[in-house]
Design a protein that fits this description.
Number of helices: 6
Structural class: alpha/beta
CATH class: Alpha Beta
Shape: globular
Helix content: 25-40%
Radius of gyration: 16 Å
CATH architecture: 3-Layer(aba) Sandwich
Order of helices and strands: EHHEEEHEHEEHEH
Strand order of the largest sheet: 2-1-5-6-7-8
CATH topology: Rossmann fold
Length: 218
C-alpha cells in the first residue's frame, strides 16, 4: 500500500448487473489498483424485468441504466423512445454528492456508455458531475436519437477506453467509435472478451493513466 490518499472512482456496472455483482467481477482490478485507486460501486435505479436466469439472486436482482424498449436493452438499437436515463443521471449525481468526493468514473458496458454521457455533461460545465476523468471499459455510444446531443461536440475530459478485441457483446469497433467522441482519448486494447481486464499489461496502462491525477481528498 502506498501512503496518503488514493483516487476514488465511482464504478458503474453493466446491464443486468448490480453493485454487488460488479464488485465481485472487479476483484482483480481492485487488487491491481490497490494503493492508487479505490472503486465504489453504484447500483442502477432500474430493475430488469422478467429475468429468470439460474444465477439470479432474488435479493440482488439485475439492473440497468436505461432501456431501449419496455424492459429491454440492445446497445445496437436506435431506440425511438429510450426510457430511464434521466433517473440514472440523477442517481449518479446523488452518489457523487452523498458518497464523495470522487475523482473519476469507471464504467463497464452500459455503465461505460452512461459514464461517457456524464463526461459530456461535465465537459459542458454541469455542476452535478464534479469528476476529472473516466475509464470506460467496453463502452459504446447510444444509438438513440434522443441521446445524440451527448456526442454533438468533442468531449474534453481525459478518458481511458478499454477495448476487448474478442468482445462478442460490445464489438471492438463500437468502443473505438466512442473513443473518437473524446479529445485525446487513450485507447487500451486487449485480446479478451466482455470483461474488465486486469492482467499485467493492462495494470501498467491503468496506473500510467491514473498517475496523471491527484486525489481531491486528504
Amino acid at each position: 500500500m502506498s501512503e496518503g490518499p488514493v483516487l476514488r472512482l465511482l464504478a458503474l456496472h453493466g446491464y443486468r448487473q448490480s453493485e454487488r455483482r460488479f464488485r465481485q467481477r472487479t476483484g482483480a482490478l481492485r487488487k491491481a489498483l490497490r494503493g492508487r485507486a479505490e472503486l465504489v460501486a453504484l447500483s442502477a435505479p432500474h430493475l430488469v424485468p422478467g429475468d429468470e436466469d439460474d444465477d439470479d439472486d432474488g435479493d440482488d436482482p439485475p439492473r440497468g441504466w436505461w432501456f431501449s424498449g419496455p424492459g429491454t436493452f440492445d446497445a445496437g438499437e436506435a431506440a425511438a423512445a429510450p426510457l430511464g436515463l434521466e433517473e440514472s443521471l440523477t442517481a449518479v449525481a446523488a452518489a457523487l454528492a452523498e458518497r464523495g468526493p470522487f475523482d473519476g468514473l469507471l464504467g463497464f458496458s452500459q455503465g461505460a456508455a452512461l459514464a461517457a454521457m456524464v463526461c459530456a455533461l461535465r465537459a459542458r460545465g454541469d455542476p452535478r458531475f464534479p469528476v476529472t476523468f473516466a475509464i470506460l471499459v467496453a463502452g459504446f455510444a447510444s444509438r438513440a436519437p434522443a441521446h445524440g446531443h451527448f456526442y454533438r461536440d468533442p468531449i474534453a475530459l481525459p478518458t481511458l477506453h478499454v477495448v476487448g478485441d474478442a468482445d462478442a457483446v460490445i464489438a471492438a469497433p463500437l468502443s473505438r467509435e466512442l473513443a473518437q467522441c473524446f479529445v485525446e482519448p487513450v485507447v487500451l486494447s486487449h485480446p479478451g472478451g466482455h470483461f474488465v481486464p486486469a492482467a499485467a499489461p493492462q495494470k501498467k496502462v491503468y496506473l500510467e493513466f491514473l498517475g496523471r491525477f491527484r486525489p481531491t481528498q486528504g
